[in-house]
Design a protein that fits this description.
Order of helices and strands: EHEHEHHHEHEHHEHEEHEHEHEHEHEHHH
CATH class of the largest domain: Alpha Beta
Radius of gyration: 23 Å
Distance between the termini: 31 Å
Oligomer: single chain
Mean pLDDT: 94
Strand content: 15-25%
Length: 418
């Protein structure tokens, strides 16, 4: 394997049921010839029986930070303090500066600093000099401040864009070799958070799925006695499942036979259970919990439409999956979603928080089989043309070749970013 194609990946949790696109990205990069070593901050705690074969394989090769325990953390501090004192002090001061005058933030950043020490020493043990980061960017920033390595980050949003100072976006952009945004909207928010002299570091690298793995169900009928909706998202306030439940309640009150399956897990589960009961929808809306990819595909095949009522998103991969399977989609007109769905062509878009618009859009799909079929066909074409995993990971690989390969081939130690 060429040393110009050897690098680390740092992920908040890997594999993870809600971030399967990262697994696909890594496996596709390996297929393209990259030697990817994965470190995960937290382990996947699902039982092995709930993991797909690919997830089990990835889990067996992933190095986990948290499992190093207290002894591993103390050893990382001691080794770095005694062998790389200047770098240790630089990283420690950087962690404290990120916390400002807030003791709790400073204390939390010291934990991130500890994780950075552990990952940095793991990189050194494997002769890894560049690391790409998903959902662990503050740890990545502190790695760059503590070790003579280079970093790059994929910023997904939308939380980072809502609070750029809290997420230290400007500092991360300045420290990174490059930053990937998953949409043009995301890139615009990174530009907003940084100075123009840093804009040359920003790359747009859309996510993607394998359309051969998400094929239409040839037996799908658009003439069922009930209309089956599916929504896949973490059960949390920003995903707005309450709005979708209320939209379904309106449809039921109109005498329509509709059912809703909510796939996902999260802190809103009990509140949503109470809301479903209060709306007398216990026989209409079911909470399916978190599912792996094969289980989810089974539910996709049983669905007539996909609905996403979110208040905040990046570019939802679950929409790509549904579109690839020729399931007509209704989603909110927010952030990067309009780059994926053109209203009336690839799907239907509605204003966030508007129960009436959402229920009307779903009713429109229920009443117009031709519209459903047309949107379903054009949606799959959109995924094949613009959100194809192989094609888009190829774009990311070219970014790595342009931005990273020369650094990896350069002789001598990498310059330390103080």
């Amino acid at each position: 394997m060429s040393s110009s194609k050897k690098m680390a990946y740092l992920v908040g949790q890997y594999p993870a049921v809600n971030h399967t696109y990262i697994l696909r990205e890594i496996r596709e990069l390996r297929r393209l010839g990259w030697d990817i070593h994965v470190a995960s901050i937290r382990p996947d705690i699902r039982p092995t029986s709930e993991l797909t074969a690919e997830e089990q394989e990835e889990q067996s090769h992933t190095w986990c930070v948290i499992t190093q325990g207290l002894s591993g953390a103390l050893r990382a501090h001691l080794v770095c303090l005694t062998t790389q004192t200047r770098w240790y002090v630089s990283g420690m001061l950087s962690a404290l500066r990120l916390g400002g005058f807030d003791f709790r933030k400073a204390f939390r950043n010291l934990f991130y600093f500890t994780e950075a020490l552990i990952v940095g020493q793991w990189m050194q043990s494997r002769d890894l000099t560049h690391i790409h980061i998903h959902f662990a960017s503050t740890v990545g920033l502190l790695i760059a401040k503590t070790f003579p390595v280079t970093i790059s980050i994929t910023i997904h949003g939308p939380a980072e864009f809502e609070e750029p100072a809290t997420f230290h976006l400007r500092e991360k952009i300045e420290a990174a070799t490059f930053i990937c945004a998953i949409s043009n909207y995301g890139r615009s928010q990174l530009m907003k958070a940084s100075t123009p002299d840093q804009w040359g570091k920003l790359e747009t690298a859309p996510l993607g799925i394998d359309p051969d793995a998400f094929k239409p169900n040839s037996t799908t009928s658009f003439e069922r006695t009930s209309f089956d909706l599916i929504s896949v998202a973490r059960l949390s306030p920003e995903k707005a499942q309450r709005i979708l439940i209320d939209a379904v309640a309106r449809l039921v009150n109109e005498g329509r036979r509709v059912r809703l399956c909510l796939v996902g897990e999260g802190p809103d589960r009990r509140a949503l259970e109470r809301h479903i009961a209060a709306r007398d929808l216990s026989g209409t809306v079911r909470l399916e919990g978190a599912l792996n990819q094969e289980q989810l595909k089974t539910l996709y095949r049983e669905s007539d439409a996909f609905a996403l009522a979110s208040f905040a998103e990046g570019v939802p991969v679950v929409l790509m999956e549904a579109m690839a399977m020729e399931i007509p989609c209704v989603a909110t007109w927010i952030t990067g979603v309009p780059e994926l769905i053109q209203n009336g062509l690839d799907g239907l878009l509605v204003a966030p928080s508007d129960v009436t618009q959402l229920s009307t859009a779903i009713a429109r799909l229920m009443d117009d089989p031709d519209l459903r079929k047309r949107i379903a066909k054009t949606g799959r074409c959109k995924i094949i043309e613009q959100y194809n995993l192989s094609k888009n990971t190829g774009v990311l690989a070219k970014v790595f070749e342009k931005r990273v390969s020369n650094l990896l081939l350069a002789p001598g130690p990498k310059s330390h970013q103080d």
